[in-house]
Amino acid sequence: MNRGPITVRYARGLFELGKDKDILDELFNDSRQLLDHCRDVKDFCSFLNSPAIKPSKKKQVLQKTLGNELHAYMLRFLDLVIEKKRETLLQDMLLFFGELFRKHEGIKSVNLITATALEKEHLENLKVFLERELNAPIELNALVNPEILGGIILIVDGKILDNSIAHQMSLIKKKLLS
Fold it and tell me: What CATH number has the domain bearing residue 38?
């Protein structure tokens, strides 16, 4: 993530606006929706980042496609980003805004990596358990990586607990070779 001063300034501005207007939850949901669009909608970010497309056209398209889905303040934020030609930093702004929101709300970010996908019921049980153990609400992101062979890797706010079979095997290998 590009945490340059511009990215931070815009994200903090959006965050402060949300706090002042008591719409942080709505802006956070909108930011997640926009990030999902960048990830899932083909050419969405390419469209926004294109210098060949006039800012007025970008605003018009966003208004038509997302006008009914996003809060008016988020739409105005997007207009400002486009007016100032900062579209290439939008994803980083939204990611940093999300970090500010999570910190404000006391939400812990948890990544769970397993070799195979877990059933929804198991994920929900794990989420309840982790919320109780961490004494905080969590945002659980489940990832699948068959290379770990089995076990789990938990990453909680940047701290890693690696209890994967691949990791255990590498520890055994180091002991045997030393």
Answer: 1.10.520
Reading the block at residue 17, the tokens are 């606006």
- How high does pLDDT run on average in the chain? 93
Cα–chain-centroid distance for residue 89? Answer: 14
Give whole-number Cα distances, 30 to 42, 86, 95, 133, 158, in Å.
19, 18, 12, 29, 25
**Strand extents, DSSP E, the chain:** 108-114, 138-144, 151-156, 159-164
Range of the domain at 121: 107-177
CATH number of residue 136's parent domain: 3.40.30
Residue 1 has pLDDT above 80, yes or no: no
pTM of the model: 0.78
> What's the CA gap between 97 and 85, in Å, rounded?
19
Instruction: Give the end of a domain, one of 70, 104, 138.
Output: 104
Single out the residue of 93, 98, 91 nearest to residue 4, CA to CA. 93
58 and 11, same structural domain? Answer: yes
Letter for the amino acid at 77?
F
In the chain, what's the furthest Cα-to-Cα distance? Answer: 65
Query: Looking at the 3D structure of the chain, how many domains does it have?
Result: 2
Does residue 3 carry a pLDDT above 80?
Answer: no
Decide if 167 contacts 148 (C-beta within 8 A). yes
Please give the angle made by the CA atoms of 160, 15 and 1, to the nearest 5 degrees. Answer: 45
